[in-house]
Amino acid sequence: MSIDKKTTIREVARFANVSIGTVDRVLNNRGNVSLEKEKAVKEAVAKLQYEPNRVAQSLAKQRRKVKIGITFPDVERYFWAKVKDGIDRAEKELQPLGVEFVVHTTSSYNIEEQVNALEALKNQGVHGICMVPHHFQKLNSTIDAYAEAGIPIITFISDSPESRRLAYMGVDDVKSGETAAKLMGLYLKGKGKILIFAIHREVLCIDERIQGFLHKLHSEFPEIEVMNVYDVSGGNHLYDYENYQDDVQHLTERILLEYEDLQGIYVTNSLTNYVGRAALSLGFQDKLSIIGHETTEDTRHLMATNTIDALVCQTPDIEVYYAAKQMYEYLAVPSKPLNLKFKRRSTILINELL
Amino acid sequence: MSIDKKTTIREVARFANVSIGTVDRVLNNRGNVSLEKEKAVKEAVAKLQYEPNRVAQSLAKQRRKVKIGITFPDVERYFWAKVKDGIDRAEKELQPLGVEFVVHTTSSYNIEEQVNALEALKNQGVHGICMVPHHFQKLNSTIDAYAEAGIPIITFISDSPESRRLAYMGVDDVKSGETAAKLMGLYLKGKGKILIFAIHREVLCIDERIQGFLHKLHSEFPEIEVMNVYDVSGGNHLYDYENYQDDVQHLTERILLEYEDLQGIYVTNSLTNYVGRAALSLGFQDKLSIIGHETTEDTRHLMATNTIDALVCQTPDIEVYYAAKQMYEYLAVPSKPLNLKFKRRSTILINELL
DNA sequence: CTGTTAGCGCATTCAT
DNA sequence: ATGAATGCGCTAACAG
Fold first, then answer.
1. What is the domain count for chain A?
2. Which nucleotide lies closest to B50 by the C1' atom and the CA atom?
3. Which of A8, A34, A245, B248 sits at a 20 to 30 Å CA gap from A181?
4. Which helix (H) or strand (E) segment is A178 a member of?
5. Do the domain assignments include residue B145?
6. Does B59 contact strand C, using a CB cutoff of 7 Å?
7. Is strand C less than 7 A from the beta carbon of B56?
8. What keywords were assigned to this record (chains A, B) (predicted)?
């Protein structure tokens, strides 16, 4: 932990016996520097551990604000509100460095709508975009085209791995699914009949969770039987309408009444909240172990009543935050390499922790 | 595209027929401005829609250095190394704002040594201190004296709640203990005989974990029996010597051989690592559920072999980071209220998540 | 009370 | 190829 204050370009210049102009030239390799001076400067930089002061940098070059565009489906207020928090945080931190954010949310997981959002962002003159791909591959060509056009894209929350996106910031969803399976096994003491409630699997993160869940369940808890996998997304345009959440709840109630000796439900996403509501309204909370994802508005209540037993959670706020920061780094210093795959660990939430 | 050429403080000054100094005064209400000029400036600000340039602001501000002191026991390299990471991060972020850090670690949980560290920090002219109290109340008077002397103190990781520290940044350790108990119950399927390995309980966070653990265990898993609570700290000066970690391992081996039908061990802190090593070396990994705290050097291996079943973890890096940031906020803008109790949620780690 | 001025660290001319 | 000088917008110290 160094107590020494930041070394400046001036000190580097003095150390290398050159002018700050020369230091600037080699630092931003603009050429026109003799080989020996260049070497001297580089040595000085290394020895003094010089790092440019970004604040001064952006002040001096009156940096035309670098604009970062962000788009994500703003469909479930609790989960996506955290994304907004993360953006706020990034904005607060990056604003002094001349960064400006432009946000365009979509109201569904519709692909066309997302393409339009991207277009809108581009028209606003953003220099880079952070997005949550609505499809695991149908957006590849679009993403590639943007990359081609000089607008790099970073994905977060869910990925589009075969595209030329710059990076992905999110959790390892296969492991999230495995973790959910382990929790299911523990809470059921290794046996019972369960159901899976999923939404459309074209969003990669959802599919990966299911894969992980099933794999883990089969290999470690052979006595737990998955009776059915329900798609509760209501078609391709999930969330296109107002009361989808209530619909999920009613659908769940109907399904729950169909099954006699059901002991568990795994829900692949934040709709866990509404599945939980259904179970509670039917009084099934004690004979059912619900394992799901994400904290939502009723989390506290549903966990306190032991309706939901465990949740595997992401931290969407931190993920956008890092996505935005990485984008800034890339835009500010394109030469510097960046974490291409930044995977965060999911988090387990049980009521003892609340 | 926004071509808004920002209006500057200079333009406001000209518009209001005053100097930029005066504008600055009313903008940051430092007083000493006549009522009419103040009014004129405010009008100009409103009319020109002036907004201060944050970049220039922080560039200019970084002259007034504020020194923040930090002290913590640097006794177990893995856990406390993360604290250093957090400090580095805070330093990197706050340095452009003129903040300087001074760190003094202690090599034990000895109280006198901590008092000396505090003294050293004070002598270096720090404006505020972040610390991990070595005792839940014996440091109260010292902390109060520092507060009295105008050097505010923020505690992190562990608290000294009856002192006049400004704030505490850390997890809720009672809940951490309860969570550990729940996990123990789940992994043992509700019954069995267990042991508790603790270190000295004068460090509040340890005591709270034990309290939480026992309370939860008794109320929810009455068929789990705690056979004994071992103090593996080796007296008041835990960690004062080189090989304490190996000693813990050997001690554990001896204890393990004493108990016949032992099914679980709860370890109150990061010594879980060495308890795990002992269990593994004796080949006990399959007949024993070990629940503990914190990730350490062997976490991956010990979990992969199912020696350690679950860990309840903190994020010490984030906790110092916030402690430092809060301290900065307090020092920079004393009038602004701050989060007095910032409790983070602990995190559960199981091998599926690794 | 008020105005003037010297930097903050860097980029960018403009001379040499 | 190199160095010196100017200024980005603001804060703070210093004169009045």
1. 3
2. D9
3. A245
4. helix A173-187
5. yes
6. yes
7. yes
8. DNA-binding, Transcription, Transcription regulation
Residue B333 in any domain: the answer is yes
For A250-302, what is each residue's pLDDT tens digit? 888 888 888 878 999 999 998 899 999 999 999 998 999 999 999 998 999 99
- Distance CA(A265)–CA(A213), nearest Å, equals 12
Range of the domain at A204: 173-313
Tell me, yes or no, whether B129 and B44 share the same domain.
no
Contact B102 A189 (CB under 8 A): no
List the CATH number of the domain containing A246. Answer: 3.40.50.2300
CB contact under 8 A, A6 and B95: yes
Residue of higher predicted confidence among A5 and B316: B316
The average confidence (pLDDT) of chain B is 87
Q: Would residue A354 count as lying in a domain?
A: no
Same domain, B332 and B303: no
C-alpha count within 13 angstroms, C-beta hemisphere, residue B35: 0
Residue nearest to nucleotide D8 (CA to C1'): A60
Which chain B residues touch A5 with a CB distance below 8 Å?
65, 95, 100
Q: Is the CB of A48 under 7 A from strand C?
A: no
- For residue A196, name the pLDDT band (cuts at 50, 70, 90): very high
Q: pTM of the entire structure?
A: 0.81
pLDDT tens for A3-61 read: 345 789 998 999 999 999 999 999 887 778 888 889 999 999 998 888 888 888 888 87
